[in-house]
Specification:
By secondary structure, the chain is mostly helical. It has nine helices and four strands, in the order αααααβαββαβαα.
């Protein structure tokens, strides 16, 4: 029975992601954001449960990536598309260039698929991921989406769709570039071996307490920064 628990959590992730897509398209964006947060929790718990219960399986790994493709690949693309559609009337968004920008949103699920496929075929590394994980990428856009839908701002300033387009490409490429990003997979809860993980989590809590859900994007940027700083420090020590 216990070997099915991780897969059940993965399916709950998939269910939340699917429901969030429908709710976003129906204009219920707040519930969509809440559901992607719940899905992120299930995504964390399925891997943790698999490690704690020693219930790893090839089918489970594939199922996890398929669920992530929906929740963290397709859903953030819909968030970005929704923002593009919302800002285009105010900024005269029409014509060929705007259509190209709007259509290029497909790079988000496409690059997410590449990232997930590479993860499935690479040897497991409990310390670093290669490229920005799809859940982190999705949470970055969740913070942007939440802030924009509430007050029409991005990082406290009015949003320009050229800037949005540039950020979309930068973050999408970060998923597939071979840049080591620190893994948040806990084998246990001891401080030793998990110091960076706890530092990232504490930073996330502090940011969210002061900024609310709009701070999710800052949390992910902090995660990226700490991962790169940790990598630089390790390289200096090894020399």
């Amino acid at each position: 029975m216990k070997r099915h628990i991780p897969n059940l959590l993965t399916l709950l992730n998939l269910a939340c992601g699917t429901a969030a897509i429908v709710l976003t398209l129906e204009g219920q964006w707040q519930w969509a954001v809440y559901l992607i947060l719940v899905a992120s929790l299930f995504d964390f718990l399925d891997g943790f449960a698999a490690r704690m219960l020693n219930a790893h399986s090839k089918n489970g790994k594939q199922l996890d990536s398929l669920a992530d493709m929906v929740t963290f690949g397709v859903l953030p693309a819909i968030f970005i598309y929704t923002i593009f559609k919302a800002i285009s009337p105010a900024q005269g968004g029409c014509g060929i260039l705007y259509c190209i920008m709007l259509g290029s949103v497909v790079v988000v699920p496409a690059f997410s698929a590449i990232r997930l496929a590479r993860y499935n075929t690479e040897e497991s590394d409990d310390t670093f991921f290669s490229g920005l994980p799809t859940p982190a990428h999705a949470l970055f856009w969740t913070g942007i989406f939440w802030q924009f839908m509430q007050d029409g701002l991005m990082f406290g300033t009015p949003l320009n769709y050229f800037f949005l387009w540039a950020i979309m490409w930068i973050m999408a490429f970060h998923m597939i570039l071979p840049v080591p990003m620190y893994s948040l997979k806990f084998k246990d809860f001891q401080i030793r071996g998990n110091l960076i993980r706890y530092l990232i989590l504490v930073s996330a809590v502090i940011i969210l307490l002061f900024t609310g859900l709009a701070g999710l994007s800052l949390v992910i940027l902090t995660y990226i920064l700490l991962s790169l700083l940790n990598l630089l420090l390790q390289n200096r020590v090894s020399r």
